[in-house]
Amino acid sequence: MFDTLLRVTGTIAPSSRTTEANDRDLSLDFAKGALIVLVIVGHLIQYVIYRGDGFWYSPYYKSIYMFHMPLFMAISGYLSSRSLLQKSFTRGASDRAKQLLLPMLFWWTFMETVKLAALWRATSLTSGLLELVDDFAGTYWFIWATFVSYLVIKISCRLNQRSWVISGLAILVALAPLTFSISPLIRFTYPFFCFGFLLARSRERWTSTSRYHKPLLILFLSIVTCVCFLAWGKDTYVYNNLGVIHDFRSAKDVLLMFVGSAAASAIAIELLLQCWSVGHSNRMARFIAVELGQTTLLLYLVQGTVFRLMDFVQFGELWDLTTRLVIAGMLGATIVAIALTVRSIVRGVPYLSQLVLGMPPRSRLPQAKPTMN
Hints:
Layout: H1 3-8, H2 26-50, H3 59-65, H4 68-79, H5 81-86, H6 89-118, H7 125-138, H8 141-156, H9 162-175, H10 183-201, H11 203-231, H12 238-241, H13 248-279, H14 283-292, H15 296-310, H16 321-346, H17 352-357
């Protein structure tokens, strides 16, 4: 599905991989860019178009949430494989903390400052502290999930029979009855991070296995995805079932959630990489890959901050659907514009680039010149 596997089977276009020092795979950047757009669209459906519980039953919301975060996590695991195997635990954890947690802390501080200045309301000390903790964990839960998954696999890599240990631990984490804070979200996405990592470490085997069976595999996964889509309901989302099995019905919901997300993620990455293979020279495709796909962390932080602030603003109850769609489109474009503007301003500034973007200044990084074959 990724990298060598799909290049051998013809999915990744010859121009999808740069030949520069940083050797970025633009096909995966394109997939990441498309996924972060879907993250924003999903939140727009939730916060603007519905502004109530109706979004749980939206087919558009369901089609996005079946795969977007699981696939994002699988790609993260895949791209983290080199760091996980080559860096020491201290170096790897430190680098990942500077990349993920430092900018998250910056945007959380910015969000709380805005809330204090513009949306302040009197609360008790206890409720105020609980709200701060909830904002810090819940707003950017995917950052925490990625960081925790990285640390757990980094520890697992020191053990013998690495692949078996990681696979077994993925199952145990997924089924662990932990429901506090964002633990259900971490438990749900962790197995996908593991799968991405294991796929990166066994590319040759996946290549030889899928070379002759890929069409049948895609057909089977497409059927599974369609069946799961039809059976998917409000209680299938991890936000509602918390990934906990306590009776037959909850077992069905949790199994449907994992199976549906896995199958939909496989079909989604195949479609995204096929789109890149066909349209890699298209200007819009390259914008998604280079501008959005290489800015996913910042886009995630900006959109998370914006939508969490919208929890405290009452608006749109009397708007008709057309107005909501227009506002949603404008807000989505504004979020992207803000993120790209912030990146262009701070990416060359020492320390500020690390703090806001989670990366060293752009001037210190090798520049990739995308080919246009």
